[in-house]
């Protein structure tokens, strides 16, 4: 069993390539919460933004 299925994260999307070498992959989304995996180069930054739901991200 891989890490994703161990946590029941069946909504994994394709990796999105954003500016500055940042990538984003939505692992789970439902109702009021979104779980996202973000990768970025050393020293990278994300853009300021808002959304109506809570979000949990981990930087890989």
From TrEMBL:
<dbReference type="InterPro" id="IPR011051">
    <property type="entry name" value="RmlC_Cupin_sf"/>
</dbReference>
<dbReference type="InterPro" id="IPR014710">
    <property type="entry name" value="RmlC-like_jellyroll"/>
</dbReference>
<protein>
    <recommendedName>
        <fullName>Cupin domain-containing protein</fullName>
    </recommendedName>
</protein>
